[in-house]
User: Fold this.
Amino acid sequence: MDAVISAPVAATGDFAADVAAFSTYWRTAREQLDRQPTEALKQAARAARFLFLRTHASTLYDRLTDRRRKFVRLERLVYEAADVVPGLAPTRAEVAAESQLRQSEKEGVEIDQGILCNQFLADPACGLHLCHTMLLPREESAEALAKFLRDGRLDLGTAKVERQGKAAVLLLANPRFLNSEDLSTQSATEIGADVCILDPESQVAVLRGDFVPEGKYAGRRVFNAGINLTHLYYGKIPYLWFLIRDMGFVNKMTRGLARPDVTPDEVAGDSIEKLWISAVDTFAIGGGCQILLATDFNIAARDAYMTLPARKEGIIPAMANLRLARFLGDRLARQAIMYERRFECDSEEGRLICDEVVEPDAIDSTIDHVVERLTGSGVVGAIGNRRALRLAVEPLDKFRRYAALYAREQAYCHFSPALIANLEHYWNAANRRA
Assistant:
């Protein structure tokens, strides 16, 4: 154990030589950790990963992407990096082995994916290219769009797409968990968003929760209960889920879809965009509230509420730290994020996020009314104004820099003992059925 800690490897600046030296170091560290796990040795190995990446992140990224001529999504990128530089990040087999364990039983090998993503995103050229990659339509979306155009509806399991007049409607459909988000919803919601944006027969997109058939809210629509905390407790939410969600699905609602041959930057680039309307029935908890900060117009039922219970979960509430203060101001944003303050949609504070607050049975007619108002003067001007407003408050490079911080901090939070303690204390997670 002492040999690795007392003789850390040094970076020379030569990529091939450093790959060989650092990989040998990490292999030795891994062998020692297998014999005698210590936090000091884990930290020494992670410090070496930061050192390697601060020296070689751009070189490695360029090798993985053919000098940024090729787009490689995060879920492939981290594993291809692990192949090129052994020991830098976990292999698929290592992550798969840990995925069988409860969150409290995991060693936390995915933290090294967070370090890798942090350093890729921290480099301006690599980070913007990675943001561009995650804004492209998914490979599966072309076939899904063709099916939607043929049938007029699309059932993706935990998400559905319908066309209602001028709007393409994306329904969150994970009813057993009150339309919360988890690994089963991730690709479905992103493909659904791609289809809504690409649909040539609609002018705007609407996000709404589907009906819940059983339990306390039986027969009611529920917007979004946030991350599936039961799945989180039982280790069914991988670390990459967080980055893929917010650089993909949520950021696509904010910025539209990128084109492969043009940067999505607001000034020099171009994107395929639609205005997004969120319709909140019942509540928008955690990730649901985060989405309201990403969409263009929010409708809420008078009896609905919003919360960001990040403190009780022990995680970073995605892009809320970047966006919430723009709506509520710094003090209320801190109260929401750090003291889980609840906001009724029908309140002075709630109306800073919700544009229309109506009776629950008036949401359908209000959606129709808002769609007509948003499209009445043509969507071209509306998209231009959307881009201009976004450039003023959150240009793509600002998002990239925040995403770099988020990649690192969420990795540490995701494997913190405090997360498990919070879930057991506030969620009674140990007694819930996964």
User: Anything to note?
Assistant: The first strand starts at residue 153 and ends at 155. Residues 135-431 form a domain with the 2-enoyl-CoA Hydratase; Chain A, domain 1 fold (CATH 3.90.226.10). The radius of gyration is 22 Å. The chain has a mean pLDDT of 94.
